[in-house]
Amino acid sequence: MSDRRESTAAGWNPRLGSFARDRAKGRVGVVMGRYAGQVYLRPPGGGIEWTACPEDLEPADRSDELSSRVRELNANSSHGRPW
Q1: Cα separation, 37 vs 68, whole angstroms
Q2: ∠ CA 83-16-49, rounded to 5°
Q3: Which residues have a Cβ under 8 Å from the Cβ of 42 and sit 6 or more positions away?
Q4: Sign of CA dihedral 63, 69, 72, 75
Q5: pLDDT, position 6
Q6: What is the pLDDT of residues 20-49, one digit of tens each?
Q7: Is there a contact between 20 and 31 (Cβ–Cβ < 8 Å)?
Q8: b vs e for 3-42, b when ≥16 Cβ sit within 10 Å of the residue's Cβ?
Q9: Alpha-carbon distance 44 to 70, whole Å?
């Protein structure tokens, strides 16, 4: 697997499609884009995007990604959605 981290002078700069941990909200999401100084993230299983300040983000490790996907699947299955 390739390294999803990209360094800049200001710290970690998440790439589109990478997984990031939003420390302020305690969530892991997929980086969908950037606009007006904000980073847009979406839950790994899909869902509503949220915005985060770049300084609140850090690279998500593999266990973060897997845990986040399992949480999303469990939440969807408890609402009667067929998978």
Answers
A1: 25
A2: 55
A3: 29, 30, 32, 48, 49, 50
A4: negative
A5: 46
A6: 999 999 999 999 999 999 999 998 878 899
A7: yes
A8: ebeeeeeeebbbeeebbbbbeeeebbbbbeeeeeeebbbe
A9: 9
